[in-house]
Each structure stands twice: as C-alpha cells, then as structure tokens.
Amino acid sequence: xxxxxxxxxxxxxxxxxxxxxxxxxxxxxxxxxxxxxxxxxxxxxxxxxxxxxxxxxxxxxxxxxxxxxxxxxxxxxxxxxxxxxxxxxxxxxxxxxxxxxxxxxxxxxxxxxxxxxxxxxxxxxxxxxxxxxxxxxxxxxxxxxxxxxxxxxxxxxxxxxxxxxxxxxxxxxxxxxxxxxxxxxxxxxxxxxxxxxxxxxxxxxxxxxxxxxxxxxxxxxxxxxxxxxxxxxxxxxxxxxxxxxxxxxxxxxxxxxxxxxxxxxxxxxxxxxxxxxxxxxxxxxxxxxxxxxxxxxxxxxxxxxxxxxxxxxxxxxxxxxxxxxxxxxxxxxxxxxxxxxxxxxxxxxxxxxxxxxxxxxxxxxxxxxxxxxxxxxxxxxxxxxxxxxxxxxxxxxxxxxxxxxxxxxxxxxxxxxxx
Length: 419
Ligand SMILES: *Cc1c(COP(=O)(O)O)cnc(C)c1O
Fold this sequence. Notes:
Blueprint: H1 27-39, H2 54-66, E1 70-74, H3 77-87, E2 95-99, H4 104-112, E3 116-120, H5 130-135, E4 141-144, H6 156-165, E5 169-173, E6 181-182, E7 185-186, E8 193-197, E9 210-214, H7 217-226, H8 254-264, H9 267-285, E10 292-293, E11 306-310, H10 314-326, E12 332-333, H11 349-352, H12 381-388, E13 390-394, H13 401-417
Parallel strand pairs: 2-3, 2-4, 4-5, 5-8
Antiparallel strand pairs: 1-9, 6-7, 8-9, 10-11, 11-13, 12-13
Helix pairs in contact: 1-8, 2-8, 3-4, 3-7, 9-13
The structure holds pyridoxal-5'-phosphate.
C-alpha cells in the first residue's frame, strides 16, 4: 500500500542531502589556503614571481584537464562568460542564442557584454534543442551558448555542425558540468571558449570563482585584458597583435585559487562515484512503464548529480512527486508555478521586459542593434511542458547500493499506482 494511504514507506531513513561542493572540504583545502596566508600573497600578480601563483596553478590544472591551449581564472562564472564574449568580440548589435532553461546569469552575461540574448527551446535532454537553435539564426546572430545543464552534456555534434555551417562563435557554459564529457572529450573543449563556475553550488567550489578555457590566441588575450584594467603592468605575456582596451577587475584572489585548486583535484573521484550511482538507479528504472527518462546525449559523460524523468502531464507529475516524497525519496517537479526559479526564462523579468542598467544603456535600444527580438512568457511552450512534467531527484556521491535500491523500489511502487 502506498505510504500516503497508510502503507509502510519504502524508506524511513533520511535520504542523503543534496550534493554540495563545500562538504568535501578537508585537510587538503586547509593546507592550500593556509599556504597562501603563510606566503602573505593574495594578489596573483604580486611580485615578479608570476608562476608562483595559485591562480596560475589552477589555470595549468584546467589546461591539462581540458587539453586547451589557454585557461584564464576569473572571479565568477558570470565574469567568465562576459570575458569570453568580449574576448570573441561579441558586443553591441550582436544576437547570442541561449537556451530557455539555464541560470539567469547566462542571459545577464550576454547583456553585460551589450549584446542581445535570443531565447530558444530545450528538448527532452533539457539542453538546447538544435532545431530551435538553427531556426533562430538570422543575420544578427553572432554566437551561441550551449549550456550543459545539470551536468548533462549538450548534443555537441549537432550544435557544432549548425554553428560551423552558419559561422557562429560557440561559447560553452560549463558552470553546472565541471567534470563532464561528450564522446570522450571534456566539456569546455568543444567551443571557441568554455566557461566554468566555482560557486558553492557547483560540482567543486573556490568560494566564488570561474575560468575560461580556449585555444584561440585572440580570445584569450582579449578576455585577459577585459579581466584586468591594467593587465599590461603586471608583466603577463600576451599575443602581441591585440590592442589593449578598458577592462573590469575580474581577477581571482590567491585564496580562492588555492581553494579551487584543492577542490579541482577531487572532481574525478566525485564524478566517478556519482556516475556509478546514477547508472545503478537508471538500470533499475529504465524498464518501468509510465515514466520516461530524460534523454542524455552521452550517458558516459553525464556528471550525474541529478536524475530526471518525465510523466505524461503536469497533474501526474505533481501527484507522482508527492507519492514519491511520502515513500521517503525527496524529489520535486522543476516548473510548478510556485517558486520563481531563476533557471527558467519565464522568471527572467529584466530580460523579458528588456530592461538595461539604465534607459540610455540598453542593448536592445542601442544604435548598433538592428534586430527585433521578441520575448513573452509563453514563447517556449515545449520547455515549460517538459519542466512541468519532470521529476528531479538529487544524487549524492555517498549514496550506497542499498540507497539506490530504495530509490528504485520507491519509483517502481509509485509508478505501479499509475497503471
Ligand atoms: C552558476 C551559473 C552561472 C554563473 O556562475 P557564477 O559563478 O554564479 O557567476 C552561469 N551559468 C550557469 C548555467 C550557472 O549554473
């Protein structure tokens, strides 16, 4: 009997809390951060020993992980995206295509670069729908930002084919998918640039922080210039044919870099555990009728901290979610009109209202912009439909075989009720 009807719940023990990067802090993080304090050097360009910098070490680690020619540490995922966009010479007058399901910072970064975001549907992978992407391309389109949302690799073959055909810049948003792969290649290595975030909710954290990977001399140099308004003072070696221009201060502090360095050494062990856990649960539920698993373009590359499946409609999803919660497996639907989730375009108020930082500083009204992008809350019905029919369960790297079996049993028990 279902737990809501007075039956025994499948599980009475608490389920693991949502995975959070900071839980992994141990002696390694302490050692690395304390070393910075002992060195009394928190500014990465302090003294002339530029290589003896934690930020430089962090960049080296990502160059090796991603096999990219360059990596640039910055102070957030948002600033990584802005630096990459400015680095690729994207700005006023340009349209940049982004998915309807991503953190609002993806859209904000486009606007901060003074370009205009164009919002397109996601498909049953909950990442950018390649067909919707291609349909949105026009003469103003300059770039696309595929987002590997919730650790799921986008269908990069299709996205790259379309981008190449239309000569577009590809900037991967890897903020939620550090440690992920697509067909054996690390995420962040496919586009002209890859943008990471090390904020606390991501796979690993540096406190706050971000990083840009690229193989392009000009993108790297321009992104570097933009991340420090006085970069040339510090003796950093850059590609010589690029003129300087004003930048922000997006530098990463050595304390953050040290934390990020210790955490980044743990990515593979965290993700290996998560992958095994997700695989076990997926194998146990894939044959259950009535639920449809989220399609994952490359399951072996999935970072695997979230398990998502769809029900036939919103009402069934809501009911399924409640019943499953009662069986002791915490979960939720993604779009339920309740919380103003900033990962869903309908809640991006300043984008939908075309509001810039001021009336005179507005990418939609600027002289250079000749396009006419339109937004409305019902512009991406497929995305809203999928998100409202989805059940999402957060996975933790310490879940045991027994925990996985409980999840399988509970999902099966609740699904039976729908037959
Ligand atoms: C978190 C996030 C960002 C922004 O990263 P911050 O470090 O918070 O600035 C960008 N895109 C996506 C998809 C994110 O999840």
